[in-house]
Each structure stands twice: as structure tokens, then as C-alpha cells.
Write a structure and sequence with these properties.
The structure holds two protein chains of two kinds. By secondary structure, chain A is an all-alpha fold. Chain A has 16 helices and no strands. Chain B has a single domain, classed as Creatine Kinase, Chain A, domain 2, CATH 3.30.590. In chain B, 39% of the residues lie in helices and 18% in strands. The relative contact order of chain B is 0.19. The chains are: A mainly alpha, B alpha+beta.
Amino acid sequence: MDAWTWPHPPGPPGEVVWLAAVLLAGALMGEAIARTTRWPRVLGYTLAGAGAAAAGLHLSLPLPDTARWVIDLALALLLFEIGTRVRLRWLRHNPGLLATSLLEATGTAAAVYAVLWLLDLPPAVAASAAVLAVPASAAVAGRVALELGADGQVTQRMTHLTALNTLYAVLAFIVLKLVLLADGEPGWWQAVGALAVSSAGALVLAAALALAVARVARRMDLLNESAVLLLLGLVLLAVGVARWLGFSTLLVPLLAGLMLRNTTERPWVWPRHFGTAGGVLVLLLFVYLGALWSPGLLAAGGVAALALVLARSLAKGAAVLLLGRWSGSSARQALALSITLTPLSAAALVMLGELWLALPAVAVQVAPVLLTALVVLELLGPIAVQLALRLAGELPPAPPETR
Amino acid sequence: MSLEAFATSRDLSLGVELELQIVNLQDYDLSPQAADLMRLMQGRRIPGDVKPEITRSMIELATGVCTRHAQVLSELGEIRAALLDAAQRLDVGLCGGGTHPFQHWSRQRIYETPRFHQVSALYGYLSKQFTIFGQHVHVGCPSADEALVLLHGLSRFIPHLIALAAASPFVQGEDTGFHSARLNSVFAFPLSGRAPFVTTWDDFGSFFAKMTRTGVVTSMKDFYWDIRPKPEFGTIEVRVLDTPLTIEKAAALAAYIQCLARWLRTERPFTLHEDDYLPYTFNRF
């Protein structure tokens, strides 16, 4: 008789093992980047994902359930946070900034549509990619600024422009999806009606979330650990309900954050990304984003993706530089600000996932272009943001203390 | 470098400087945006002027030469309006108070000028801890000797002025128990405290010459006294006040100092004596 039998026969490793592996790889790469270079840690997370993809473990659409949940939840936290840092009153006092925001978003969509159309992509594909190329990354902007301790006008404007272009993109996407589903039939009224219904629904849910957070804040110190967990739970619950009812999981947390910021002058102070628990989700988000590429995808979408990246950067840069003076920036700050808008938001991935469910035929063609662009920009993004913030003089002079 | 000549100024004229805090409107921590404010203030017509201070989250406004309380108040109001307009375009807040309640000194950044970098190199962390906000009041004096006499006369009222203006109970997130904790940061500097007891400009000149020969000072700016002569303006400068929370209070404090100066000048109510300074450092609390 063999004494060395396993208690249970080993099957394939489950989801938890994979999740743990992703977490470990991300944490180790992040630490390695932080120790050997002066680049932000998030670059390491994305590299870990990209490495896994190179070893054949890439993520492909439609995303597996775990990845979808992690991305939804992490993004919800980041959008909620960035929402609570946007003061709409600033846009009233500084119309130049509002104009910059509108111009960079519409300019990006127009430029991306134009180049993809020139590359002979079908209009529906070009239009979808154009809308999905609009949002700048709340995750990269938020993480890098936090990690490096950046503070100043460029940091502040980056936050506002990022939150706003994400908002525009999500709204535009709802309309676009309806127009495409109506297949060219003039369903404008229908589209507007549906937009109204989904924004109203998201608005109600966001208001409920904002109210609940405000209630918690009245009773508890938000820096306290149990209050943080309560907040985290509330945001996650809101996202879960939004997904269940079919509202945008991007719109609800973003709007809730905006409501909290703009209904009171009170400061909202809580640990970034809601402490360690939220930090884990954000780390996983970056690893997943890095793992989205594969050689096949690169071959299919490479040229168009490169064109998209260039058109996008040029459009954003031109808009910000053109209106920089009016909005009260120096030329150097405008340049830095335009660079900080380089990273593409994971919100684009979530919207691509929705497109996949609604219009698979279009999504299949958008995916190679958008995913390649997303991975490229996610790798370049943190470095670009760091260089831009240094250019603007908004990083602390000494290396920041380890956190 | 020798002591410059004492310029003449109109007797009992007033000038007020206020150092203000630049805070973000998210969590109201100090925010290093003085250079942006300075850029937006360029070309605006205001009485007096606006200047950067040693760390990048401070900004200083100054009235022109005023004669009366009403003029001080209206000039402060005009400058405040212009500054607030610029601040709104940047979405930052400006506020009074002698210290920021919870900023962390080590996170402060030195403003980019050669002088500030020199001070920072000399005093190290002390210069970052110097992120404190005061009101300075200049009083015009007809002559240098009169200025020194007025300076030592006003010294008796330093405790009163500190008490009236006190607006800095919190430092680095702690309740200090002091009403004006800001002065303790000034105290850390070796050349703080009081001016030497000399009542003629000649004697002051020889004191200054001795100090420069030691290499400790190169200009009047190196002294951080509670009241110091400002030969370039022909004034003495009272520097113990915390920046109050309103410009109305700032103007009232300036007017009070003007009244005191006039009373000391015209009535000569007491004879000056070095012994007046015996309880000085204690009373300064």
C-alpha cells in the first residue's frame, strides 16, 4: 500500500490560484520597477500582465467572469474617487477649461473617426472606436499622481479633464449603441428617449449611493477602517445593482462622486482607493489590462491602432495647447497637461465588452484596434504622465517617502 | 555691504502686508500654486502689489502707502478681489490665519528665486517650517532716529498686539494650547527676537557694521525681529501679528498701531529704558 497518496486527486487549478498568481506577479513586478527604475509602480503591474500574455496567458474577449467583475469594481472605485475631485463650479469660473474639455473630447472622436475611415474601416467600426478612444485614464492619472505626490494646476486639470471625457464618452456610447442597433433608421427620438431613461436610472442610483456615503460620513470618521469598508461595500453594491438593472456601471459611480463633490463644500477625505482592499482591485485591473494583447491581435490591429494612438494624441494635444492660454495655463503647463491625457481608460474596455454583447459583428472588428491601442497606451501612459508632471514642476523635489 | 540710508516717509503713514495661505478646494491642504497666481495677477491694476513668499503655497499682498484706516481697508479689498478672481480661475482657495492647521512642513516646496534658495540652503528644514502667515504693518517715520525711538516705544505693546491678532492655535494637526503658535516658528531663527537697544541711526549703523563683519548678516532682511526698521521705505515694520481671518480685522489692527504710534510720538508717555526688555521674551507668549 502506498502511504503517499494525495487526499484528493489534483484537478486543474481553480480561479483562486490564477487570481493569486496575477496578484503576486503584479506586486513583484511593481516592486521591481520601483526599485530598479524611477518609474511608477503601476507600470510594473501592466508589465506583469503583458508578460503573462506573452507566455500565452492572454485575456480575450468576451472576458471571463472574474476578470469582468474585477475590472468593473476597480474602475467603479477609481471613477467614484475621480468624481469626488471634480468641482463643476470651476468650469463656470473658468470657461476656457470647459471649452478645452469639450474640444479635446470632440476633437479626439473626430480625428480617430477620420483616420480609421481613411484606413477603410466600416463607419460603424470607426465610430465605435472613435467614441471609445475619448476617455483618458482615471486609473493611471490617479495612481501616478498619488504615488509620486504630485500637486498643482496640471494635476488638478488632468483630474477634471479625465473625469469629464469619461463622462462624455459613456453618454456618447449609449447613444451610439442605440443608433447602431437601429441600423441607420432615423431612430433619433428613440435614441434620445433611451439615453434619457438610462441616464435617469443611473442618476437615481448614483444619488442613492451619494446619499448613503454622505450618511456614513456624518456618523463616522471616514479614515476609520470600518467606515472605509462600509464605503467600499456601498460602491460595490451600487455597481452590482447597476449591472443587474442594466445601467452603466461606469456612469453610476462617476455621477455619485460628482454629486458628493458638488453638493457640499465639505472635504471628502478617505484613504485612496478605499485602503488595501480597493488597492488590490486596482492592482488586478492593471495586470488584466496588460494581459489583453496577443501576437494575433497585434497583427490584426497594429497599423490601425498606431493610427488611432497618433490621431488621438494629436487631437488632445492640439485642443489643450490651443486653449491653454484662455484657460490660464502657461505654455509648459498646457504641453504637460496634453501629455497626461495620453493613457487610454479601462472604461473603453468595459464599453467594448458591452458592445460585444449588443453588436458582436462590430465589436469583433473594433477589438483588435482598440485593445492594441489600450495596451500600448497603458504601457506608455504611466511614463508619459510622470514625465509630464515633472515637466510641469509638480513633483516634490526629493524622492517621495515610501508609502 | 553697509547699511543703506534711511529714506524719508510721511509721518504715521501706513502700509499693510498680509501673507496668505493657498489651499486646494478638495481637502483644503496647502497647495504649491503661488507661481500660477503670480502669472494670472500679471498686468492687473491693483493698488500695492502681490509677491511670492518662501514656500510655494504662500502669497503676500501689500497695500501702497496709505494715510488712514479707510484707505487701508479699501486697498485691501481691491487686492483681495483681484486675487480671488485669479484664484477662482485656478480653483484654489486663499485664507488667513497664522498657521495652516494640518499641513505637513516637510511637504512644502521652496519658491524658485535665488534668495529663497539661499535661505533654504542656510536654514534647511527651518525654512520649510517657516510656512507661517503673518501681517506686517509699516509705519512711516520722518527720520531714522525717530524710527528707532518709535520702535522701542512700540515694543511695550508687542504682547497686546500678539494677543489681539492671535490666529494660529493649530500646528501640524495638533492643538498647541497657544493662541499664537506661529511665533514659536519665528523663534527658531537665530536672528529673531528684538532689535538692539540703540536709539540713534549712527549707533544702529555701528551695530549693523559689526554684524556684517561677523559674516552673519548681509542685509536688513536677515533679521527676523518683531519690529525692524526698513530704511528703504523709511518705516518701521511691526511683524508679530498673525494674519487675521478678515481684511476688516487687518485694517483695524493697522489703525490701532497707527494710533499707538501717534500717541507715543506726540505725548512721549514714558522714557525708554533697556530694562523694559527684561520680561520681553516671556511676555511675547
